[in-house]
């Protein structure tokens, strides 16, 4: 399963994977408790493969940030919790991504990255980080 099928839904905790798409939205399954819900097009949904983290030089795709967390933790759950203090979270994230933009990446964003990594790890979905989109956008070059 690639990160294209894993979602974050505003107002709902954790991550969800798409089970099937419907005419008006999608049926998704929570990675926390495996419960299925229907989400409509009106829901604020973020696909993990489309999220990036600001650094001082560029935006780094979330996939790359999660890969760095995986390397740091040797594929194990993080040693810190998403509920740890702001200072602990920022220190951890600085080790993972030393040039992240501290003005535009908030502690709440770091909490999400830590929580999402741990959810992906718990559900054996870290292999999705190595999958690359086969379809490249060539329309801009034409």
Characterise this structure:
The chain is built from 3 helices and 7 strands. It has helices spanning 62-72, 86-96, 107-122; strands spanning 6-9, 16-21, 25-30, 36-40, 45-47, 52-54, 59-61. The strands form 2 sheets. Strands 4-3-2-1-5 form a 5-stranded antiparallel sheet, with no helix packed on it. The protein has a two-stranded antiparallel sheet with strand order 6-7. With 142 residues, the chain is an alpha+beta fold. The chain is globular and about 45 Å long. The model is unreliable at 133-142 (pLDDT under 50).
Tell me briefly what this model is.
With 142 residues, this protein is α+β, with helices and mostly antiparallel strands. 27% of the residues lie in helices and 21% in strands.
């Amino acid at each position: 399963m690639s990160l294209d099928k894993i979602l974050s839904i505003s107002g709902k905790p954790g991550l969800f994977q798409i089970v099937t798409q419907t005419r008006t939205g999608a049926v998704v399954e929570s990675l926390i408790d495996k419960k299925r819900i229907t989400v409509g097009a009106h829901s604020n949904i973020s696909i993990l493969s489309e999220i990036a983290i600001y650094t001082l030089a560029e935006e780094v795709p979330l996939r790359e940030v999660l890969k760095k967390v995986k390397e740091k933790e040797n594929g194990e759950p993080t040693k810190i919790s998403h509920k740890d203090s702001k200072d602990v979270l920022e220190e951890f994230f600085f080790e993972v991504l030393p040039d992240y933009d501290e003005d535009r990446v908030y502690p709440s964003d770091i909490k999400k990255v830590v929580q999402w990594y741990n959810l992906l790890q718990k559900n054996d979905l870290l292999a999705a980080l190595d999958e690359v989109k086969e379809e490249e956008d060539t329309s801009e070059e034409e």
